[in-house]
Amino acid sequence: MKAIRPALLMLLLFTLICGGIYPAMVTGLAQICFPSQANGSLLTNQSGEVIGSALIGQPFSDPGYLWPRPSATGDFAYNPLASGGSNAGPTNPAYLRTVAERLQGLRAAGMQGPVAADLVQASASGLDPHISPSGAGLQVARIARVRGLSEAQVFRVITSHLEERQGGCMGAQRINVLAVNLELTTMKP
Fold first, then answer.
1. pTM above 0.90, yes or no
2. Could you tell me the residue ranges of all domains in the chain?
């Protein structure tokens, strides 16, 4: 009994510290210093309605919008509960068929020439909200034509949402699809 009592007291103390006090401090500090990020980096429309998160991709198939990177999360595209890649290698026949089908869909939509890999290959998480600047650039003509805008107007919207490499050295430049599409929604020809 002598050894159990201190062990139980330590269990209660560390449960209180690690399970209550520390998480409350971190949450409070995050809310004070980084409120947008702590609340999910939510994006809103003009009336203040939450449309989505800048951190999770959304499906867009309307030709008047920027199309995202494909999702590998199954039947419910961009489902964060099913986050994960397909784990199919570059020589997997099913993977090659999937990429070929995606490429065929882009060709049917009028995209010609070389296609950026991120328009036909899903990301490792299946939730990537970004595409490459080259992937976005390939879609400028289609979006401009459908929306009745000039290609220069669409290009300006896309480049205004260019995110640089993290810390200037990690990753690649990227475009947030949802942020671009929210701005495109507000534009009139």
1. no
2. 1-39, 42-186
